[in-house]
């Protein structure tokens, strides 16, 4: 398996990966995804993000097959982290997270985690940043990750 920058040719596979699991964000009373949320899965939306220098977009592949996708804003907001369901607990999410978080200069990284992904993010070092919320039909848990400052070696005389 390889991690590489996402490319325009990957958009169809990424949309399939993301939309196949997006119902995990549905609120308690919600049976359908809000239209504004569905619109964010358009090829145009992904193409804009891929061509922007304000996002890190990476995929984990096995040959031609995309097994995972991550999108992190340069300013420190994790937009997407999706892994094929049959690949959960295989280390793909962790590998994508570790790869991209090292590239991002932000010391604080935030995410609106789906409620079922909270244990994963806790294992990655995130902490709960408020109570779980439901907004515009989507349920999520605000979380944050604070990068450890690099420790400089003690100066010796």
What fold name stands as the CATH topology of the domain at 2-106?
A: Aminopeptidase
Q: Any idea what the CATH architecture of the domain at 2-106 is?
A: 3-Layer(aba) Sandwich
Strand/helix succession: EHHHEEEHEHEEE
CATH structural class of the domain at 2-106: Alpha Beta
In the predicted model, the low-confidence regions spanning at least 5 consecutive residues are 151-157
CATH superfamily annotation of the domain at 2-106: Gcn5-related N-acetyltransferase (GNAT)
Give the % helix.
25-40%
Topology:
Blueprint: E1 2-5, H1 11-19, H2 35-39, H3 43-51, E2 55-62, E3 65-73, E4 77-83, H4 92-103, E5 108-113, H5 118-123, E6 127-128, E7 133-135, E8 138-146
Parallel strand pairs: 4-5
Antiparallel strand pairs: 1-2, 2-3, 3-4, 5-8, 6-8, 7-8
What does this molecule look like?
The protein is globular, with a radius of gyration of 16 Å. 26% of the residues lie in helices and 31% in strands. Helix 4 links the parallel strand 4 and strand 5. The chain has a domain at 2-106: Gcn5-related N-acetyltransferase (GNAT) (Aminopeptidase), CATH 3.40.630.30. Strands 1, 2, 3, 4, 5, 6, 7 and 8 form an eight-stranded mixed β-sheet that branches. The protein is of the alpha+beta class and 157 residues long. The model is unreliable at 151-157 (pLDDT under 50). The termini are far apart.
Describe this protein with a few key phrases.
157 residues; alpha+beta; Aminopeptidase; eight-stranded mixed beta sheet; 5 helices; disordered C terminus
Q: What would you say about this model in short?
A:
The protein has five helices and eight strands. By secondary structure, the chain is α+β, with helices and mostly antiparallel strands. Strands 1, 2, 3, 4, 5, 6, 7 and 8 form an eight-stranded mixed sheet that branches.
């Amino acid at each position: 398996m390889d991690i590489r920058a996402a490319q325009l040719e990957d958009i169809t596979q990424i949309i399939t990966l993301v939309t196949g699991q997006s119902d995990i964000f549905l609120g308690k009373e919600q049976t359908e995804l809000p239209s504004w949320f569905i619109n964010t899965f358009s090829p145009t939306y992904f193409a804009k993000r891929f061509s922007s220098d304000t996002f890190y977009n990476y995929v984990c592949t096995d040959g031609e097959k995309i097994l995972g996708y991550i999108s992190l804003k340069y300013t420190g907001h994790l937009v997407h982290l999706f892994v094929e369901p049959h690949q959960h607990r295989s280390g793909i999410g962790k590998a994508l997270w570790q790869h991209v978080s090292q590239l991002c200069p932000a010391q604080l990284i935030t995410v609106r985690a789906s409620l079922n992904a909270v244990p994963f993010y806790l294992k990655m070092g995130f902490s709960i940043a408020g109570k779980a919320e439901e907004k515009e039909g989507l349920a999520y848990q605000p979380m944050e990750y604070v990068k450890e400052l690099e420790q400089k070696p003690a100066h010796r005389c």
